[in-house]
Write a structure and sequence with these properties.
Length: about 290
């Protein structure tokens, strides 16, 4: 199995990292991608990948961290610094441990009762998010990496940017992480050969369940978004934090939801993820087929 999105680089796992990795591997999760959200977490993701077989890094600046770029005209040095630092992380990867730029994207959600609750989702903030997103998309093409896209309540802006900056290079090399249940996002994903990431929230969100029913299995990749989005029944039991060891719970739920065998779900989603991040070809053929009208 493959957990395509696990924040093992977060402080929540600082003292338990090796234990969590070992437990996840024992649960059958052979592969993992650890995404960055800023420069320090991207560097940590690369460190983890260097020290563990079949664990890969993604590096990127999450839209939340674009707040430091507002207003752009007063923070141009900071913007250049962030882009240069991120490129430095990419250049520091001499062993091919970085497989993607991510997680990057747009976010207009107000996160109440979190450290982000005082962020003002205004035009300046959105412009800053757009600016750093475009720069990172360009870096992905330059360094031939896949892309992990974060989107929350910013669909129209996101699709506008992707339409403007789309390149055929990204076909089969992009994923909508924890994809919002939105038909426009799904149609864009189908027509542009983008994978859909499905997380533990599918086990309790009826809206997400109905959405995933309309996604071909050949487009799905599994992710935990650890330490977040704990799946049921662990969510009701408050057995936090979420870890990659819970991928089997998600795969079983998807199998039941789509009327497929667990073995089939595991096989196809793992092949999809290997294609997405390691560019193996079998899944590219499937996603190309289902994207055709």
């Amino acid at each position: 199995m493959f957990d395509t999105h696990a924040h093992l680089n977060f402080n929540r796992f600082k003292k338990t990292l090796e234990e969590v990795i070992e437990a996840s591997q024992k649960a059958g999760v052979k592969y993992m991608v650890v995404p960055g959200t800023d420069i320090p977490s991207s560097e940590k993701a690369l460190e983890i990948a260097r020290n563990h077989e079949n664990i890969f890094a993604a590096v990127g600046i999450h839209p939340h961290h674009a707040v430091s770029l507002v207003p752009l005209e007063e923070r141009s040095d900071d913007r250049i610094s962030k882009e240069a630092l991120l490129e430095g992380v990419l250049q520091n990867d001499t062993q091919g441990n970085i497989v993607a730029i991510g997680e990057i994207g747009l976010d207009q959600h107000v996160y109440e009762q979190t450290k982000y609750e005082n962020y003002h989702i205004d035009e300046a903030f959105i412009i800053a998010q757009k600016d750093i997103l475009v720069k990172q998309i360009q870096l992905a093409k330059k360094y031939e990496k896949s892309v992990i896209v974060h989107n929350r309540e910013a669909k129209d802006h996101l699709l506008e940017i992707l339409n403007i900056h789309w390149d055929s290079y990204f076909e089969g090399k992009m994923v909508f992480h924890c994809c919002e249940p939105d038909k426009d996002l799904l149609e864009f994903a189908k027509s542009h050969k983008i994978f859909i990431g499905v997380d533990g929230d599918v086990t309790y969100s009826q809206e997400k369940q109905e959405f995933i029913k309309n996604v071909p299995l050949e487009m799905l990749v599994l992710e935990t978004d650890s330490p977040f989005l704990l799946p049921e029944p662990l969510r009701s039991q408050k057995k936090y934090p979420n870890t990659p060891a819970n991928i089997p719970l998600i795969s079983k739920y998807i199998a039941n939801l789509l009327g497929r065998s667990v073995e089939e779900v595991v096989k196809i989603t793992t092949e999809n993820a290997l294609s997405l991040f390691l560019h193996r070809t079998s899944s590219n053929e499937r996603i190309r087929t289902i994207s055709q009208p």
